[in-house]
Amino acid sequence: MINRRNVLRAGTAGALGAEMVASQSPPAAATPPPDVAERVSRRDWELLDQALSSRSTLYRPGDSGYPPLALPFNHRYAGIRPAGIVACGTTRDVSTVVRWARTVGLPAVPRSGPGHNYAGYSATTGLLLNMARMKSIDSTPVPGPRSRTRTYGRIKVVHDAGTVTVGAGVTNGDLHPLLEDRGMFVPTGRCPTVGVAGLVLGGGIGFSDKMFGLTCDRLVSTTVVLADGDVVEASQNSHSDLFWGCRGGAGNNFGVNTSFTFQYERFQGDVGFYRLNWSLDSALPVMAAAQRIAVDTLHDKRFHLRVGMGTHGHTSDEIRANAGVNAIGQYYGDLAELRDILAPLLAIGTADERAANDASVREVTPGEASVLLSATTPVQQFAAKSAVLTSRTLLTDDQVAAAAEHLLEWPGSDNEDGAGFAMFALGGEINQVPPDATAFVHRDAVFILAAETSWADYDPPRVATANLHWLPEFYHAIFGGTPPPHSYQNFPDPTLKDWRRAYYGANYDRLVRVNRTYDPTNFFSYPQAIGT
């Protein structure tokens, strides 16, 4: 999406990031009244520290381990500083922490991994539960008639080959090596540092979701620490309403999830891969062809596509020179079939572009594909808006032209991730699930569109302001005053007005009922939390 680099760059951390973004930060995800944190005595903190096992650690401001854990992935929210951080190592310690926080009156907010939440909802001025130590990955094969084997071109897939249980600190990057090392696969996202917990709780899109479903569709069970500190195992057969809500209801709404069990597949063979690039001059034919292909292959679960346009740079000349259109994806089938599907796209562009794009279509192992398809979400500071596109709301030529024109008016920044939009194709197994079967309601979509802008920690404040003004203008240039009614809950937008229906549609009322059952006092709360 936009201009992505495959290696995560280290952002400016510590005091610099906090000072530069404090004025840009919206309200904290969980903000106690000003006097609450001060009322928590030193003795209270000591009691918490003493109650933790040796596998967990409490950090307070001033401790050497505090700054890197306090900093969220999106440095836009670095000014939100927790009163304390517990690096949690066990579910029992999570339960202890939740009970303590409730007793002293501090909000408790979980963060898996670096805290990628786009809207900063994994930041807090209360107590932060950092789950990164909970990294266990345990697999259980399921031999016999429960598994089924199918061949797709050069690859053989054993469906439902077993289950894998992962801790809440496991990231996409932790799971991807299973492809290379053990031939096992769970559908995950493309950003290696994103926590699987946040991914699955909000749905979970990636480059294998049409074939195997969303990450939340592969969930078998999850361990949840509730607001009163009790621990439950949610599945189809136990706490089924909570299990339903955990599959697409977004994180930190019902409790703290400490582990997840998924069905996994087993792979043998190769997949098709492609990476196509054009100048911005080809925006109209590329977007038209890509959308036709997505509609034509909506029910073909073997074909996966992400298409977008973007740019980066600081000056107008750099922004114009770097602007382009791109498409990337994979295919579970013969390479000749993939070339036939991509033919309309491969025919677009200059002779050099066509030659390079044609050469990019090749067979790779599933493990190689996971590396080639991986990319980070924007680093340092960024903002995003999303839309769920159905067959009735696909982009017209006029909308694409407006987007391309407005892209060239981007104010620029020193963040090489730049700005633009990407469209992630859905369909296949995703759309075979009824919209009320899980909390993830977007089961008739063709694409999820994400529009983003980014700026660097060391950019002056006027650059951040200009970027934050540009993004809604860019979104409006595409959709006008009547954008599509639905948005993706894992790309939360703090400026979205009717977020309840946009994220959850007709499922929102049931989510509220689940929330009232498991968290009746809204202990786990943030500006776009269920029930607020």
UniProtKB/TrEMBL annotation:
Cofactor(s) listed in the protein's UniProt record: FAD
PROSITE patterns reported for this sequence: FAD_PCMH (PS51387), TAT (PS51318)
Domain FAD-binding PCMH-type: from-to ranges: 78-267
Pfam families with a match to the protein in the record: BBE (PF08031), FAD_binding_4 (PF01565)
Keyword entries, A-Z: FAD, Flavoprotein, Oxidoreductase
Entries under PANTHER family matching the protein: BINDING OXIDOREDUCTASE, PUTATIVE (AFU_ORTHOLOGUE AFUA_1G17690)-RELATED, FAD-BINDING PCMH-TYPE DOMAIN-CONTAINING PROTEIN
Family: Belongs to the oxygen-dependent FAD-linked oxidoreductase family.
UniProt name for this protein: FAD-binding PCMH-type domain-containing protein
Phylogenetic placement of the source organism: Bacteria, Bacillati, Actinomycetota, Actinomycetes, Kitasatosporales
